[in-house]
Amino acid sequence: MISKKLQDVVRVILIHHIDIFQESLSPMKLQKLCYYAQGLYMATHSGEPLFDEDFEAWTFGPVIRNLYHDFSKYGWRNIDMNVESPNIPAEKSEFIKDIVESYGRYDGAALSTMTHREMPWLEPRKGLSDTDGSDALISKESMRIFFEEVLAPYQD
Asked: pTM for the complete prediction?
């Protein structure tokens, strides 16, 4: 079961994705948008996470195991569910909306490919091929550092 914080982030992602792109998204895409939201939020908010769950370095990129199980019934299909309004501050909702606008144009496979080039996923998979299974944890600290470096050229 996922935490209330993550449930709210998921709801915000689903709502904004439908508003912006007029369609829902696949579970894989949801995982990757959660990953980018978490990493970029920590990088811009002194390491504070949006939610407590950790990502694992699975074959198709970063995955939160319990989130995977919660949405696995959809397989590769788009998530088809009624979404309750989240209980999340407006500032966080706007931040997540920006992530959805930036990364939501890519499908789950493209986002997975992107994560395969990034240190937070690569580091815990050292010695494994792209197709090897793994449940190695991706540390929040590695995500924060990586995304701070990504954003550095855009800072004043």
From this structure: 0.96
